[in-house]
Amino acid sequence: DTEVTQTPKHLVMGMTNKKSLKCEQHMGHRAMYWYKQKAKKPPELMFVYSYEKLSINESVPSRFSPECPNSSLLNLHLHALQPEDSALYLCASSQEQRRAYNEQFFGPGTRLTVL
Amino acid sequence: RKEVEQDPGPFNVPEGATVAFNCTYSNSASQSFFWYRQDCRKEPKLLMSVYSSGNEDGRFTAQLNRASQYISLLIRDSKLSDSATYLCVVTLNTGGFKTIFGAGTRLFVKA
Fold first, then answer.
1. Which of A35, B84, B92, B93 could form a disulfide with B37 if both were Cys (CB 3.0 to 4.6 A apart)?
2. What is the separation, in whole angstroms, between the first and last Cα of chain B?
3. Which residues does residue B2 pair with via DSSP β-bridges, in sequence order?
4. Is residue A2 very low, low, confident or very high in pLDDT (cuts 50, 70, 90)?
5. Residue of A nearest to B91 (CA)
6. What residue in A sits closest to B47 (Cα-Cα)?
7. Which tens digits make up the pLDDT trace of A21-66?
């Protein structure tokens, strides 16, 4: 099984809502990533978890809160978002973070619209 | 200067053509290199890792030049299905391994 799954596929939320994005992988990978991608731009790294611990936080605003409940699951909790946060949110996983060739496998993404 | 730079294109080529993309990186702490492809409104998918010795996978050949700090991707005998955005990806070893994507090069292959 070489698949990363993400739910929901689409999400529309108001600026006062609280929602969560979910990501799951069953490849035994120990590194998981959240990226944000705006239209016609490359993915931008937000967070990295390595062995279920937060390893990298790319100065992401606190309205985005990641969580890694176990080695297979990664959540992104959203609260008080702004319209400019509308984007495709991609989850990825790799065998490990701290190795040279850490090929990452991406989920299909959640397309988020903030009204 | 961007850490990873690519020509955004678009490259418009006929079927059967050979096309090459280059990507330059600025940080000498760059440890590993990849090409991903991304179709419109889809996730990036790994095309190939790029090793110092160069590597080939069917119609695709990737090269790495550490001295000049660039990587390349050559696509031979282009197919319509090769139309996509090609993303150059670099992993930096700066204490933690951080992944940086280039802005991507758009390729259109036409019949």
1. B84
2. 37
3. none
4. low
5. A100
6. A103
7. 999 999 999 999 999 999 999 999 999 999 999 998 889 999 999 9
Of the candidates A90, A97, A99, the beta carbon closest to that of B43 is on A90
Among A30, A93, A102, A111, the strongest candidate for a mutation testing the B interface, having the largest count of B CBs within 10 A, is A102
Predicted confidence band at B78 (pLDDT cuts at 50, 70, 90)? very high
Instruction: Kindly list the distances between the CA atom of residue B104 and the CA atoms of A6, A98, B10, B39, in Å, as whole numbers in the listed order.
Output: 24, 25, 10, 11
Cross-chain CB nearest to A101 (options B32, B98, B100):
B32
Kindly determine whether residue A43 and residue B91, on different chains, have CB atoms separated by under 8 Å.
Answer: no
Q: Judging by DSSP bridges, how do beta strands B44-50 and A44-50 pair with one another?
A: unpaired
CB atoms within 10 A of CB A45: 18
From B20, B31, B34, select the one nearest B89 (Cα to Cα): B34
